[in-house]
Amino acid sequence: MIVITDEQIKQRWYDNLTNEYDLQAIVLAQYWANGPNTPEYDDAQSEFDDENWLVLTDEEADEAVREEIEEMVWAFTPSFLQAHTGVNADAIAKIQEMCESANDPLKAMIKDFDHFVNDAVKCDGRGHFLAGYDHEENYITFNGITYYIYRRN
Questions:
Q1: pLDDT in tens, 86-126
Q2: What backbone torsions phi and psi does residue 126 show, to the nearest 5 degrees?
Q3: CA distances from 44 to 13, 38, 72 (A)
Q4: Which of 138, 152, 86, 150 is nearest to 115 (CA)?
Q5: What is the C-alpha radius of gyration for the chain, rounded to an integer number of angstroms?
Q6: Is 125 strand, coil or helix?
Q7: What is the pLDDT of residue 19?
Q8: Which one of 28, 77, 89, 151 has the minimum C-beta count within 10 Å?
Q9: In this structure, are residues 135 and 127 in contact, taking their beta carbons and an 8 Å threshold?
Q10: Domain extents for the chain?
């Protein structure tokens, strides 16, 4: 007689799902299942493929928020930039009139970019930068790994 453990059943279920769906879509469907609905893997895969949601590990979320902040330095408030550059806020505001073109010059003025990123995340949270829809950072632990979920649009 062959005995199949609950862990083996879970592993087979997981293996079958990962053959058909991306891991991020599976995690997203499981996150949705925490509400009143049952997981809809096809819907989750479609939403993930359309880049409407981000599903990231903690390390991936840190990398993504850094990349996002690097692209939008020009949009930070002049006073926040002044605190990290030592340049007068009025001068920064003038530079910001160049919009996206001001990004590289302003980024070059920041004394410690790691501190800048950490300070921005501390003030507003990763969701502010990664979740364009609602600025929320949500999470779920799935198979022992915590994933952070961001709705983009």
A1: 999 999 999 999 999 999 999 999 999 999 999 999 999 99
A2: -65, -35
A3: 17, 12, 29
A4: 86
A5: 20
A6: coil
A7: 66
A8: 77
A9: yes
A10: 58-130
**pTM of the entire predicted model:** 0.82
Q: Report whether 139 contacts 146 (CB < 8 A).
A: yes
Q: What are phi and psi of 53, to 5 degrees?
A: -135, 150
Residues in the chain: 153
Contact 72, 57 (CB under 8 A): no
Residue type (1 letter), 29:
A
Q: Which residue has the tokens 């991020």?
A: 24
Alpha helices for the chain (secondary structure H): 6-20, 23-33, 41-49, 58-71, 78-85, 89-96, 103-109, 113-124, 126-130
Confidence at 11, pLDDT banded by 50, 70, 90: low
Quick one: DSSP state of residue 132?
T
Residue 45, φ and ψ in degrees, nearest 5: -65, -45
> Residue type at 18?
T
Average pLDDT over residues 39-58: 90
DSSP assignment, residue 52? S
What whole-number distance in Å separates Cα of residue 125 and Cα of residue 135? 8
Residue-level pLDDT at 106: 98
